[in-house]
Amino acid sequence: MLLxxxxxxxxxxxxxxxxxxxxxEYGVYVDQLDWDKIRSTLNSDLKFSKNDRHKxxxxxxxxxxxxxxxxxxxxxxxxxxxxxxxxxxxxNIKNLIEVFLNCPLEVCEKRDVKWLYKKARNWEIKNFTWxxxxxxxxxxxxxxxxxxxxxxxxxxxxxxxYLSKKYKI
Length: 169
Description:
13% strand, Rossmann fold, alpha/beta, single chain, globular
């Protein structure tokens, strides 16, 4: 599963709560890959250029594929701004579920306790998604969460309902 959109759209938060619920209620362990953790460890050599973003997603999709081939379910929460990146993930990960966390930029900025948007607007961060770089909105995501209108619980329940229907969990 790929949760995607802007910083502070609650990708990581939804992922955390979803994993916890799946483990507690269904007894299924789920691996989480989060862009903050991957960027600071495995992909610490990468910046935010389009080329580096592609390398980041290619590496992550290969990890997800390996985990899936070993019977593990994975929730990846990444900005993934280009359609070509999401295509890489779909090509590398069998049965990828694309989840778009729809949330207005203004709301994401208000949630930003790291001041990333402010830094990006002051040109302290280059190639920042939706400020000085693009995000190509997914044309046909499998599911849309409106994290500016839904509580975390509502968003997670929406995902659980989707998974229940699709995979009979």
